[in-house]
From TrEMBL:
Name used for this protein in its record: SigE family RNA polymerase sigma factor
Record carries keyword tRNA-binding: no
Domain RNA polymerase sigma factor 70 region 4 type: 100-152
Domain RNA polymerase sigma-70 region residues, every copy: 10-76
The entry's keywords: DNA-binding, Sigma factor, Transcription, Transcription regulation
Keyword Metal-binding: no
Gene3D superfamilies: 1.10.1740.10, Winged helix-like DNA-binding domain superfamily/Winged helix DNA-binding domain
């Protein structure tokens, strides 16, 4: 195995795995996504100019692979009459609850909006860089980011109101 590739994965792998978790909304799917992309990256590693940010290359692979998986899953998705039960929130600190609320709201967004928000705010990329990764215009990134933030605000506010109502009904303050 190429030691430079192993060093890259060791030093930057966790960061990209967190990005994959935010893109997929699921830890196990993120690990699968990351594994698939690392396999693809390894196959081209010797042709890649590792001095010029292999992070950007892997990030684009994560987005494109996730997009293709999402499209494949969407095509074979089967509607169900009843939704599965949602687990009750556990006792966590306010910071943990807030992070969980954000992850939950992100998972409910359309893929393009979620991708734009993750790349823009978690990866801290400029709008132009996000446009390059997503393969769209800067204006499209701005639209997805704006709509995604609006939806996140609504989702988090409604989830908070629902949780507050459950707490008040149970008598816990």
């Amino acid at each position: 195995m190429d030691t430079s590739f192993a060093d890259f994965v060791r030093h930057r792998g966790d960061r990209h795995l967190r990005t994959a978790v935010l893109l997929t909304g699921d830890w196990h799917a993120a690990e699968d996504l990351m594994q698939a992309c690392l396999g693809k990256l390894y196959r081209v590693w010797d042709r890649l100019d590792t001095s010029t940010e292999p992070d950007a290359y892997l990030r684009r692979m994560l987005v494109n692979t996730h997009r293709s998986w999402w499209r494949a899953r969407w095509r074979r998705e089967v509607p169900r009459a009843h939704l599965p039960d949602v687990p009750a929130p556990g006792d966590v600190s306010d910071a943990g609850a807030t992070a969980e609320d954000v992850r939950s709201a992100l998972a409910k967004l359309p893929v393009r909006q979620r991708t734009a928000l993750v790349l823009r705010f978690f990866e801290d990329l400029s709008e132009a860089d996000v446009a390059g990764v997503m393969g769209c215009s800067v204006g499209t990134v701005k639209t997805h980011t704006h709509r995604g933030l609006q939806a996140m605000r609504r989702l988090i506010a409604s989830d908070t109101a629902v949780n507050r109502g459950e707490t008040e009904r149970s008598g816990v303050r």
